[in-house]
């Protein structure tokens, strides 16, 4: 139960090639999350002496109820159900997660959990300037962190996309950068997507050049761990590190770190663009959202007070 290759191999008649393609059907980030979720479910089942694979609908409903009692959020439970479903399908079993008992149990959990999720704050352009003002660009780490904040904002990157960038993915052009995003949440097949990043007042090109030159990077991953002695490592920075960096500079800027996450850079660009009156579809060119409704949510929040109905009398 430690990995999906093991789960897939349990299905009778699957060749090694088929097993490999089953595993590759989901992104590495999704597999990591699913692996944890399936292990939690498997441990819960083992403690109670019931089968995890294949599981019954009653077992899954009991698991959901138990998790809800422990304070696990409905969104996390949704992902755990998806992981359990994936594990069953990969092992060649019919999934019990579609059973009505499971869906009704989850619906009841959602209705009883009426605490509104607190959304993370958007690192809009004004907040971004406050944060990058605290990057010590006399050090390699400061140069790297400044590039992470600026590029993460200007490209509306997801944290997994940001850490996956390589030197070869970025092309300098007269107006800024062309960046190839090789794979993303909305591009699971890896077709790739190229976005344009304006150099602008943030001087994205200059910040990138300064970091790459100081780090002596000509190939491979752009964002890497740096030792306390200022030495750059070979491995790629983890996506969790992006969140830590955002929070660190939010604190330095006098902001509440708990309000910010790695997603704040992405939402910050979209919100700032909406406030500036940018075309919705031009925003989507950068953010790569598939749903207009999702981006409209950002736009609506940014324009709540614009042309307010009460302007003439309040």
Can you describe what's shown?
- Keywords: DNA integration, DNA recombination, DNA-binding.
- It holds the Pfam family Phage_int_SAM_1.
- With 314 residues, this protein is mainly α.
- The chain folds into 2 domains: 16-113, Tyrosine recombinase, N-terminal domain (DNA polymerase, domain 1, Orthogonal Bundle), CATH 1.10.150.130; 125-303, hpI Integrase, Chain A (Orthogonal Bundle).
- Helices cover 53% and strands 5% of the residues.
- The chain has helices at 4-9, 16-24, 28-48, 57-69, 74-90, 100-112, 125-132, 140-154, 159-164, 204-215, 239-252, 263-275, 280-287, 292-302, and strands spanning 170-173, 176-181, 193-198.
- It has a 3-stranded antiparallel β-sheet with strand order 1-2-3, with no helix packed on it.
- A hairpin with a 2-residue loop joins strand 1 and strand 2 (176-181).
- Helix 13 crosses helix 14 (292-302).
- It is globular and about 60 Å long.
- The N and C termini lie far apart (62 Å).
- The model is unreliable at 1-14 (pLDDT under 50).
């Amino acid at each position: 139960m430690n990995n999906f290759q093991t789960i897939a191999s349990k299905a009778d008649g699957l060749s090694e090639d088929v097993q490999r393609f089953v595993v590759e059907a989901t992104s590495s980030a999704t597999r990591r999350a699913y692996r944890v979720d399936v292990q939690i479910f498997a441990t819960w089942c083992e403690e109670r002496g019931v089968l995890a694979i294949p599981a019954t609908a009653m077992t899954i409903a009991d698991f959901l109820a138990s998790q809800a009692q422990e304070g696990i959020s409905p969104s996390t439970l949704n992902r755990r159900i998806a992981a359990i479903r994936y594990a069953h399908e990969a092992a060649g079993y019919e999934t019990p997660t579609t059973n009505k008992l499971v869906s009704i149990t989850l619906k009841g959990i959602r209705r009883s959990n009426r605490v509104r999720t607190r959304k993370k704050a958007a690192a809009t352009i004004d907040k971004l300037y406050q944060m990058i003002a605290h990057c010590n660009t006399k050090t390699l780490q400061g140069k790297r962190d400044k590039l992470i904040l600026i590029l993460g904002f200007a490209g509306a990157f997801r944290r997994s996309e940001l850490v996956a960038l390589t030197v070869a993915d970025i092309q300098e052009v007269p107006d800024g950068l062309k960046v190839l995003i090789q794979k993303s949440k909305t591009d699971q097949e890896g077709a790739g997507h190229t976005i344009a990043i304006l150099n602008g007042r943030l001087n994205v090109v200059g910040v990138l050049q300064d970091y790459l030159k100081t780090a002596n990077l000509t190939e491979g991953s752009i964002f890497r761990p740096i030792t306390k002695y200022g030495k750059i490592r070979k491995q790629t920075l983890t996506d969790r590190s992006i969140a830590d960096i955002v929070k660190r500079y939010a604190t330095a800027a006098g902001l509440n770190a708990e309000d910010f996450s790695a997603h704040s850079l992405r939402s910050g660009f979209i919100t700032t663009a909406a406030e500036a009156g940018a075309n919705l579809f031009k925003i989507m060119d950068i953010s790569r959202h598939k749903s207009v409704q999702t981006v409209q949510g950002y736009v609506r929040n940014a324009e709540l007070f614009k042309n307010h109905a009460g302007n003439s009398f309040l």
